[in-house]
Specification:
The chain is of the alpha/beta class. It is built from 19 helices and 11 strands. The protein has 2 domains: 188 residues, 3-Layer(aba) Sandwich (D-Maltodextrin-Binding Protein, domain 2), CATH 3.40.190.10; 205 residues, 3-Layer(aba) Sandwich (D-Maltodextrin-Binding Protein, domain 2). The strands form 2 sheets. Strands 1, 2, 3, 4, 5 and 11 form a 6-stranded mixed beta sheet that branches. Its main location: periplasm.
Length: 436
């Protein structure tokens, strides 16, 4: 009896010691809707997969809010160990001194396994990943194949010229919204410029130094946006605000509009909305005739490790990052959201699963193919300071042109002027600092 009691006591003490060693840490993210559901499912799966550590995943409502809160929390000494930041905040985070490069923390990971499109945006000048790509999206072209077929269009348009011709057929068939957009910076400027090989700013979009200047008002972007404004007047293009749904993706998902450019991360919502009503197709974003296709940019966000934490917390966070890299976790995330896998081995895993042609993986191969098109010095990504604020400037100025005044050229001239002012402020803030 005494031996049993001693053994039981020893076991209890050992269990208590194990529990005491368990490490809790926080991961802040900025998504809502189906993406948030998928993130929380991964958090639960990690916690269920082992008992040593526990991640608490905290939603902040949006990328912008998450970024602001994390920096404030870091300054007060209460930052989470892991934070999800979106693409536009990359340079701000790199120069903030608030994060530790993920490749420095996890030197033994095969980082070369990450797809080129994901690496280019988040790596340093010497090729080291600063953050771990996570929910990676890119721009794709969506069509309501059912509605296009009803208008006599049997081939998916590949060029903007073909989109215009398809829109004219749809309009002639009585369709009130052939193509819909919201004029968002990511879609009509960044992704358009990248795949057409056009610079947004000098110094290869800031990669070669903080003294970059915007040049978007001198490239084919001006003509493209002018075309969209003219096509809107002709009833071929609608803005989201023109639609009954009020938002461009909602208008497409409701069958109100027949074509759109959208994030691969929008696929799950479109497929669910179309179920039993329409057939949806996804393809690479359209090109203008005469331009060589280059890569589209990675969108979405990556995960950063913030400074100021105990070794045990960092070790626990590393385990979570390892977990998220697993092919089965990436496959589940792609199937639930439409976001693109970020490591090269996942497409092979999808093929081996026997479900490569399943609708839930519709964005995987095409998204990676789009991001892995030939790259130029101007299509790696954007390394511009205060770029989050510039996106707002771009929207403010181009919205005026959408509404009839001034011209799109004048709007982009104003965006360039205001954008350069932001760049000079950022340059002054980090005067003498070398880009990582």
């Amino acid at each position: 009896m005494k031996m049993f009691t001693l053994a039981a006591t020893t076991a209890a003490l050992m269990a208590g010691a194990g529990a005491a060693q368990a490490t809790d840490f926080e991961f802040w993210y900025g998504n809502t809707g189906s993406v948030e559901t998928a993130i929380l499912a991964q958090c639960d799966a990690f916690n269920a997969s082992q008992s040593q550590d526990k991640v608490t995943c905290v939603g902040q409502g949006s990328y912008e809010v998450s970024m602001q809160k994390a920096i404030a929390a870091y300054r007060s000494g209460n930052a989470p160990v892991l934070i999800q930041f979106f693409d536009a905040g990359t340079l701000d985070l790199m120069l903030s001194d608030a994060v530790v490069p993920v490749q420095e923390i996890l030197p033994d990971v095969d980082w070369a396994n990450y797809i080129d499109g994901a690496r280019a945006y988040y790596e340093t000048s010497d090729g080291r990943l600063f953050s771990q790509p996570y929910n990676a999206s890119t721009l794709l072209f969506y069509t309501n194949k059912t509605q296009l077929a009803e208008a006599g269009i049997t081939e998916t348009p590949k060029t903007w010229e073909e989109i215009k011709a398809a829109a004219e057929k749809l309009k002639a068939a009585g369709h009130a919204c052939p193509f819909v957009t919201d004029g968002d910076t990511w879609r009509v400027l960044e992704q358009f410029s990248a795949r057409h090989g056009l610079p947004i700013a000098s110094n290869h979009n800031g990669y070669d130094g903080l003294d970059a200047e915007y040049v978007l008002n001198t490239t084919f972007v001006v003509q493209h946006l002018t075309n969209l404004v003219e096509w809107r007047k002709e009833g071929l293009v609608r803005l989201g605000v023109d639609t009954k749904a009020g938002k461009y993706a909602d208008a497409f998902n409701a069958g109100e509009c027949a074509m759109m450019e959208g994030s691969s991360g929008s696929y799950a919502a479109s497929a669910k909305a179309f179920e039993g009503k329409y057939e949806v197709s996804v393809d690479m974003a359209p090109m203008y005739e005469g331009y060589e296709r280059h890569n589209t940019l990675v969108g979405g966000a990556s995960i950063y490790v913030m400074k100021g934490h105990e070794d045990a917390e960092v070790a626990a966070a590393k385990g979570f990052l390892d977990f998220l890299r697993r092919p089965e976790q990436q496959m589940a995330f792609t199937a639930a959201t439409g976001y693109v896998p970020v490591t090269k081995d996942v497409l092979g895993a999808i093929e081996a699963s026997g479900e490569a042609d399943a609708a839930k993986y519709a964005t995987a191969a095409i998204g990676i193919e789009s991001m892995n098109q030939p790259r130029t010095e101007d299509s790696r990504g954007v390394r511009l300071g205060f770029y989050v604020q510039f996106r707002e400037v771009f929207m403010e100025e181009t919205q005026k042109a959408w509404n009839g005044e001034p011209t799109m050229q004048a709007a982009l001239d104003n965006a360039k002027k205001r954008g350069d002012e932001l760049l000079r402020r950022f340059e002054q803030t980090y005067q003498g600092v070398k880009l990582p």
